[in-house]
UniProtKB/TrEMBL annotation:
Identification of the protein by name: Serine transporter family protein
Catalytic activity entry: L-serine(in) + H(+)(in) = L-serine(out) + H(+)(out)
Key words of the record: Amino-acid transport, Cell inner membrane, Cell membrane, Membrane, Symport, Transmembrane, Transmembrane helix, Transport
Gene Ontology cellular-component annotations: plasma membrane
Cited NCBIfam families: stp
Amino acid sequence: MNVAVEGSLPRQGSRATGMNKADLVWMLGLYGTAIGAGTLFLPINAGVGGLWPLLAMTLLALPLTFFAHRGLNRFVLSGSTRDGDITEVVEEHFGKMAGKLITLLYFFAIYPILLMYAVAITNTVESLMIHQLGMTPPPRALLALGLILSLMAVVRLGGKFIVKAMSILVFPFVIALMGLALYLVPHWNGAIISEAPALSDAFNGDFVKTLWLAIPVMVFSFNHSPIISSFAVDNKGRYGERADGKCNRILLGSHILMVTSVMFFVFSCVLALSPSDLLAAKDQNISILSYLANHFDNPVIATLAPLIAMVAISKSFLGHYLGAKEGFNGLMIKMLRERGKQLEVKQLDKITALFMILTTWAVATVNPSILGMIESLGGPIIAMLLFLMPMYAIAKVPAMRKFSGQPSNLFVTLIGVLAMTGILYSLLF
């Protein structure tokens, strides 16, 4: 499904200069999609690894995020039709068989994230009811079902509403997140600094292993690939051949905002807690905000932290639903087309919604480890499509060869390989 954003639309092929209202909506929409459960679990994973891996992750964050999403955006723009989404562009460039495989991977790169958000929102609300409201929560299955149905009610309002809602919610969210990060400054204890090894001893096997396993979480935390297809299609319709330059400027602005705010939040949380606190948060399978609310005997943190977490996870659930729906619909369309059948979009959407409700409800009820799912499933599959597929296309697809030879291509490929191989370590050790 493609989402068009209204407001200050220049005609197709017009000069892609300046920043208009629709560009700003997209910039904030991209930011809003990326900030969610991954961001709220990143301080836990980053802090457990120690100071030096955290600093290395900070240096990698902006190039990792920008170059990867720029590559995927360029891939979607390389399609020959004006409104072809990622599933159609894959089939155009790689053929029907490869198209089926990539469409399947695209779905499974996004779908597990939806499952993680279902677990995260259930755990956040359950923790809020127990620790802050002093209530006995309902049975987990009922709580999860109620929350998921509430989110799906918002989905029914349509893709345009979701993008606009995320761009609006991002303002209070950023203010609240930065406010909480600043509020934690007096609580900084520096435990992660005092426990860090000397620089001469830092770059050992443990450092390499920690950074290696942290890359899939970083990929996941800054990921907004589910909305890139709609973003590229919308801007291609507006700016024609100049869409690449315009998209790059929007992406860079969004990523600078994203990396700056997220890493400041990460450092503030890590410096306010000890490594043992972060291990406890990981064991409890809750976000850093829920842990902060339970850890500090402070009414401001206890009230704000769970609410910020709920807003972040909810809006990212909605943003990722667009991508999961696009992938699932693409799979069904290809299966039906082979059998000479077709369904109306409304019927496809109903089947997709039912599938999403039942599966997210089941996983949220079971409550698997969120960080475990990110390290072993979400991050590696996202890396395959977000990092490696566009780089392969640059080498093989004539429409993308103009981007070959750039040093950033090697960097993106290396990060993609490291993220994918992280699953091997998780499985073997």
